[in-house]
Amino acid sequence: MRRAARFVSRYRVTLAMLLAFLVVNVVNGALVRYFEADDALYGEVAYGLPSLLEGRWWTLLTGMFFVSNLWIYIPILLQYGITSALYERRAGHVRTLLVTLGGQALGALLTSLSVLALLPTGWHWAEDPGSDLDTGMSIAAFVLLGALTALMQPVWRRRVRVLGWTLVVVLFLDSAQLWDLEHLIGFTLGVFAGPFVLGRMPQRPGVRLGPRTQRVVAATIVAIVGLETIIEGFLPAGLPQLFTIERTGAPSGIDLTLVVIALLLLFAADALRRGRRLAWVFATAFLALGVFAIAVIETRAQRVADLVVFGGVLLVLLTTARAFTVRTRHRAFRRTLARLGWVLLVLVCYAAAGFWALQDEFRVPATPATALGEFLARLLFVDPHLLHPTSHLARLFLHSIGLVWVAALVVSLVRLFYSSRRPPLDPDAAGRLRELLRHHESSTVQWMLTWRGITPWFSADGETAIGYRLVGSVALALGDPVGPPGRRMAALREFDAFCFANGWIPCLFSAGEETASDAPSLGWKSVEIAEDSIVELPGLAFTGKPWNDVRTALNRAEREEVVYAETRWADAARWSPTSCGSSPAAGSTTRRSPRCGSRSAPSPRRTTRRCASRSRRTPTAPFRASPRGCRCIATGSRWAGPSTSCGAATTPSGRSWSS
Core-most of 43, 294, 583, 636, by most CB within 10 Å? Predict the structure, then answer.
């Protein structure tokens, strides 16, 4: 009971609003029927432009407690409950009540005023929302979500705002319903009003419209267009749309053409984020064709609205053209043409065999001339109607020619978008890096720069090196630049330009304080993720109470005559065969290796059984060095497993193991 009371006290506003909403709709019968415009009460409580023009201002608040059907409103109730609870826990009860009621009323008012301002333009979309009414608390839910971002950490604040705006903009552009405009205005209102509700001014976003930011902006806009297009491809054609591009598919089916174009736009958006020039050419050409089609096909009033939107996106791509400098290599184009040539050859053989086998399955029997014309037309994505199939198999055969060719073109284009930009490897790079490491200290992880998979990069003068590994589109470098400290800043600038030219994002892991202090001047950000604990070995003495456990372990090791030794990798093969958990001779003490995980065992049988339970692998050959690491071999037992280092230990019985 106390926990329930604390829960109710902590989220009193959220629970009160949900309870009031549920009670009103249960009493109104929203569980078993639809509460719509033909109901006498609907016009008195629903909000919208007609209610505002007729002076029913109270509907800005009363409409949030009604809904047409309670069952279909469950997702919005879940969103409101979670968002409101999180906001109430962080901001308090009074602010939550203020944002919920004030945001709902102000959001509904701004939506009505926006529709009123668009009515004189003649835009077909504004006619229906201008006469529609709406109910529900979805505006409050999106206002709370926008206001909640003001309480988040900067990274998550930026992510949630970008994702939130992308969602509401895509839904608004696609369906253009009244509630989609309400969600867009509500989320925007919450983002801008959230800091004021908390009693502080909004933080000025530290956004510099540099080349990388231009890439992100263009990629986001193209991604929104792609998402809008793919949703339009799946939605029925009868649903009202903000942009009335004529569909080519069936009225109630899926438009595969729009789906394919949308997928290409989404891939192009990701490639734009990486600075790919080919993706910019594709997106610009597609939008230019779209603007031309809108100018030629649509009516005058609709054409103006669509030209403004699509023309604006095209203008953004044209003004940011210099940011997309990552060009696809000619070798990638040659390989793509070769692959398409092989696909075309296979298609020719497939079409020839198909037309020969199904020549009687057409209304007019297929001849070589008509088959060739039909095949070439399918490759150009047109239907010449030269052959009319009379069976399902023949119809499927004709469609498959175009589908296979489209799939080949899409895969080839996507492969060109993501073609590798890795620089050619220098065979002397590893030696040059080791030479610099001998003269200049990088960081505590500088020894990892010699590992396989690390690509060394050298400055123009060859005096500074940076070891990195490409992870996705991030060039993850280890430690500080290896070279003279006075050349660190210039080397970082060169490395940043090198990554930008390849469409990568540079990231230095385990960098020192001096490198972190230079990050702001480069436009980079630094974050502390850990600290190194360095123990100076000269003069080290394990004295005092904090070192009690260490002294105990050292004394036990000395008493049991356990010694630690180090060896080189090339010399590791000289160690003798080992015993890990095998049964000792009579009268000797049984000890298992650290791999077996026990300090001692009471009997040989128990030792052998427990060691074998750690791994069921069979015994292997005696210990030897291998590229995968040292191995601890149990001669005469059933256990063998790799270890992580190349030390050696000796027991009083004369047996040894390597670990």
Answer: 294
